[in-house]
Amino acid sequence: MKKKTKKTITKDMTIGETLAIDENLAEIFLGFGMHCISCPVSQMETIEEASAVHGVDVDFLLKKLNENVK
Fold it and tell me: Is-contact 25 36, C-beta < 8 A?
């Protein structure tokens, strides 16, 4: 049986790439007030860029995303 490895979410990934890994992570973004998950910019903007725009601590956001990725 092959062991499934979790993908690590990094600040240089786009929100779109992150949601492609695990769409349930949308709840984390929403919890941080980042409603850009359905915005077309989410396909181009990195997590780091979006965090800066929304005044979110990118390291704390990444910690939460990686704790919850399936």
Answer: no
pLDDT, one tens digit per residue, over 16-61 is 999 999 999 999 999 999 887 777 877 888 999 999 999 999 999 9
Beta bridge partners of 70: none
11: left (phi over 0), alpha (psi -120 to 50) or beta: alpha
Decide: helix, strand or coil at residue 46.
strand
Domain count, the chain: 1
Q: How far apart are CA 45 and CA 3, in angstroms?
A: 32
Q: What is the pTM (predicted TM-score) of this model? A: 0.86
* Phi, psi values for residue 57, rounded to 5°: -70, 110
In a domain, 43, yes or no: yes
